[in-house]
Amino acid sequence: MSAEPSTFTLLVKGMDCAECARSIQNGVGQLEGVESCRINFTSEKLSVTGVVPRETVVARVRELGYDIDRSTPAEELPRKQPTTFWGYAMQHQDTKRALIGALLVLPGILFVEIAGLENALIDLLSLCALVIAGGPIAADALRTLRFSRTITISVLMTIAAIGAVCI
Question: Exposed, middle or buried by CB within 10 Å (0-12, 13-18, 19+), for 16?
Fold first, then answer.
């Protein structure tokens, strides 16, 4: 006698775009026992129907680079909203990485592009900026290719970044 399919909903955190939602849907949909899988990007809700354990789905979502919010509405505390741009920007890890990358690229813009001075150190700083700011995108691209086997914007951006370095 086989188990009855059940439906459960999870709250997924860390999605930046609809492409992220699609990679989660494809990755979870390929799990054995999943009959249907739908994700709503705007509400961050993942609904799964099938004879698959909840923890298996949670593990796959985490393998794809996202997190599951396990809090219930009663446990949610109101968060203090930042009052400044910098306060808001520093809440997000991706923004911090982008700002660090921008600071590392700034000497290249000032010295190479404006002053015409070239130095290997400036090239090294630019490569560091690429790794810091682009690393998470490349990691997401590899996870997407591994689990969903689809070409997403992360994959295309990674290919473009590698091509730009080669040029």
Answer: middle
pLDDT tens, residue by residue, 76-127: 445 567 778 888 777 778 888 999 999 999 999 999 888 888 889 999 999 9
- Packing angle between helix 18-29 and helix 54-63, nearest 10 degrees? 130
What residue type is assigned to position 144 of the chain? T
Q: Which uninterrupted H or E stretch holds 55?
A: helix 54-63
Residue 50 CB coordination number (10 Å): 21
For residues 33 and 131, give the distance between their C-alpha atoms in angstroms, rounded to a whole number. Answer: 38
For the four alpha carbons of 25, 29, 33 and 38, in that order, the dihedral sign comes to: positive
Query: Residue 7, SS3?
Result: strand
Those residues whose C-beta lies under 8 Å from the C-beta of residue 93, and which sit 6 or more positions away, are none
Q: Where are the domains of the chain?
A: 6-69, 85-166
Domain 6-69 class in CATH? alpha beta
